[in-house]
Amino acid sequence: MDDAYRVKPQDQINEIAELIRSLTYGETVELASELQKAGVETKQVNKVAKLVRSLTYGEMIDLAAGLLKAAADTQITGETLPTILHRWASQHGEPETPGTALLTLD
Fold first, then answer.
1. In sequence order, which residues have a C-beta less than 8 Å from that of residue 12 and are 6 or more positions away?
2. Model confidence over 50-74: pLDDT tens digits?
3. 71 Cβ partners below 8 Å, 6+ apart?
4. Summary count for the chain: helices (H), strands (E)
5. What is the 8-class DSSP label of residue 8?
6. Under a CB-based contact definition with an 8 Å cutoff, are residues 48 and 34 in contact?
7. pTM
8. C-alpha angle with apex 63: 62 to 67, nearest 5 degrees?
9. Which residues contact 7 (CB under 8 A, 6 or more apart)?
């Protein structure tokens, strides 16, 4: 395969971050809920699931480390996951569209 057509791992992680940033708070809560279930039904959540499935083991480790860093001292639970996902997405790279942040991070 020509390298010009190969997706770079960081591009996939950035795309996941951008998709998470584009979710409303309600969609983020739904994402956290859906990640705990087998079936995923919304278009945005399907995109996130497809991108996560495309990650290599090493990229999954990087993603998990980023989520743990974003969680800081907060335990990751179904209730805290939406905020942690949004915090991670907001900290990971720059949002492509200004004004998409739901939470202000100090």
1. 51, 54, 55, 59
2. 888 888 888 888 888 988 999 998 8
3. 80, 84, 87
4. 5, 0
5. P
6. no
7. 0.52
8. 115
9. 54
